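User: Can you predict the 3D structure for this chain?
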Amino acid sequence: MKIENAVPYLGALVTDIDVKRMTDDEWKTLYQSWLDGHVLIVRGQDLSKADFLTCRRFGRLKPHLIKHARDPANPEITLMGVTSMAKDTKGEKLIRDRGQGWHTDSPWDTEICKGTQLYGIEIPSYGGDTLFASMHAAYDALPERLKKRIAPLKVEFRTRIPAGFEWTLPSLAAFVAHVLDKAGVDSAHIIGAKAGGGIAMQFAADCPARTRTLSVVHVPFVERDRNISTPSFAPQSARLGSSVSKEMVDYWASMFATAPEIPGKGLVTAVAKSDFMRDGVLQRIKAPTLLMTADRGQAQSVERARQYQTLIPNSRLVVVQSDGYHIAASNADDCVTNVLAFIKETRKRA
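Assistant: Here is the predicted structure, written as structure tokens:
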């Protein structure tokens, strides 16, 4: 058995071993490598479902809360596919689409599992990437003053919207302020894209002292004639524009299809009910502001974006080459470069 560090701070890559025939000493070494590196990559395995279930050696297995995705004969196994037509190892039954949207490791549960074991049967040619980060290394890199500030905090993962939540931009902006309060953060560089840009602008207007800079990646699109009783999203091909790949369009379409319905419709409703010019939101923004839009966007014109920009006292407008609306995805490099340069320039002037 050969064990190598996958990347600095995180992960172990294991080769030259058959996990079905491990000795006790090899198992102990493998387990300790997982504890040390947090992510264990064991290559070159050929496992049946029975073989896969030997992972009980890591600890008690807990069936996933999503019951319809459990394997009928082995409820401790969750079957995942990247499309609704994905098939299991024998091809006799369809596997539900559980691989395109959100995480499947149940961080919202009251009893958090210490690990998730994955076994790839058919690997997609595009997408499907899972990225890992070491929170230990991230914490160690924090300034001491920030470590002291967050020391008494506790984290609670919630997936349910509070009963009676008012889906308006002022309410959503107040929720952002609440998050900053919980984190002990007095002020921050506020960045939002599309509908999130609407929340960001509302926050900057309502909480000027807490907004260091404001960056809005594509001015929010407000359709005055939209029927907000049944809000919906435009096709992803229109949102992303003609320059992106079919795979990217399919990815975003699948993610939107599996996203929680209530928050999605609530956000669309909040933006549809708003009018930044009528409500005086733009005029109340005091922070240095960067607005970004597309030169050929069908959902929002450069002229409308410039109208917004002229009403914000300390602002500038950057126009990127795109016919899409979701330029944060389709023109990600341009957006990141402009936002970081804007923040850096503003900090120098301060």
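Confidence is low (pLDDT under 50) at residues 84-94, 225-231. The radius of gyration is 24 Å.
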